[in-house]
Design brief:
The strands form three sheets. Strands 3, 6, 7, 8, 13, 14, 15, 16 and 17 form a nine-stranded mixed beta sheet that branches. Strands 1, 2, 9, 10, 11, 12, 18 and 19 form an eight-stranded mixed beta sheet that branches. A two-stranded antiparallel sheet has the order 4-5. About 25% of the residues lie in helices and about 30% in strands.
Length: about 350
């Protein structure tokens, strides 16, 4: 079997990249084993143009937000609805937090006062609103695209082992598949890749729960110390933790206790926790993606390191990377792996 590209991983990065390559007429095959605890499947799917305690525009917001039209293209192709416009209701935790938020009103077009009441919550310091947000139904998107790949004969559902690759500077062979290039979109598995494990990844762990909250409006995302985001039907995603130091990537009773403590002081409605999830996020030392080809083995590439902003970053950078691969155009300097000169070639 001969293809142009082998893609390893079918999270949000691998999904967007494989879609864009097919749009450009490339022949591909995706190698992926289903993992219900992958970072993409545990994430809420939020696209937020505002970031940080200072409520400023997220990095490259003016470029990233228009690029989410790729989800609309996929909706038409797959006859599904993946995107939902939402606003974030930011429940201020102190007078200082309220003042900081209000300072951005009028200076950031996404940040507004919220003058209505929220009878389903207890709060003392008012609410701000962040609009222009979107929720991606990641489970539906990933599952539907996976079915499309499988029906087209473009998916190998198996664990990938780099030991099964024969790699030269010009092409690669994986088992019986010959390809011009192999692109790794495999999240935390990058630590086991001898060609890219010298990149300064900075993985972190996140936990979340799915809870049934009858009566709570799915019109908003509710944010205090945790976020409550619409999931499916009357269920909501609640999370997530953000841990730099952790002994394992399994769920913990400590997070459940944190959720219960927070909801006791914030939510008035009854709730029932249905599912508890945990995953390791592929973040980076400078919070920017790792995109590009290996400097000594240009038949090997990486599209990884999206961190907590995968749904925002993946569409824009998938298109940019595919144009680089097919036309030789440049990659955004802050995302290009060439910004790190310590990559070491190994065989």
């Amino acid at each position: 079997m001969k293809v142009d590209y082998i893609i390893v991983g079918q999270g949000i990065a691998g999904t967007m990249l494989s879609y864009q390559l097919l749009q450009q007429g490339c022949k591909i095959v995706v190698v992926d084993t289903f993992n219900s605890a992958s970072a993409s499947r545990v994430a809420s799917g939020l696209i937020n143009p505002v970031t940080g305690k200072r409520h400023v525009k997220t990095w490259m917001a003016d470029e990233l937000i228009p690029a989410v039209s790729m989800y609309r293209q996929l909706e038409k192709e797959l006859n599904q609805t993946f995107l939902k416009p939402v606003s974030i209701l930011n429940f201020h935790t102190s007078p200082e937090a309220q003042h900081s938020f209000n300072e951005r009103v009028g200076t950031n077009s996404f940040v507004h006062h919220y003058n209505s009441q929220q009878e389903d919550f207890k709060y003392e310091h008012g609410i701000g609103e962040i609009n222009g947000c979107l929720l991606v139904n990641l489970h539906l998107l990933l599952n539907t695209w996976r079915e499309k790949l499988q029906q087209s004969g473009l998916l190998l559902q198996e664990p990938f082992d780099i030991q099964d690759c024969a790699i030269t500077t010009h092409n690669i062979t994986y088992k019986s598949i010959e390809a011009d290039k192999i692109i790794f979109c495999d999240g935390a598995a990058a630590t086991r890749n001898p060609y890219f494990n010298h990149l300064p990844f900075r993985f972190n762990k996140g936990e979340a729960v799915i809870a049934r909250i009858p009566g709570l409006s799915p019109q908003f995302i509710y944010k205090r110390n945790l976020k409550i985001a619409p999931w499916q039907d009357d269920t909501f995603w609640i999370g997530a933790s953000f841990e730099w130091r952790y002994e394992h990537v399994s769920t913990t009773t400590a997070f459940i206790e944190r959720v219960q403590e927070e909801l006791m002081h914030w939510l008035k409605l009854p709730y029932e926790i249905m599912t508890h999830m945990a995953a390791e996020r592929p973040s980076t030392i400078d919070y920017k993606p790792f995109i590009g080809l290996h400097p000594l083995f240009p038949s090997i590439g990486i599209f990884n390191g999206m961190g907590t902003k995968g749904c925002s970053l993946a569409p824009y950078f998938a298109k940019e990377f595919v144009l680089h691969l097919t036309n030789g155009s440049s990659i955004t300097k802050d995302a290009d792996i060439s910004r790190f000169y310590t990559i070491q070639a190994t065989s």
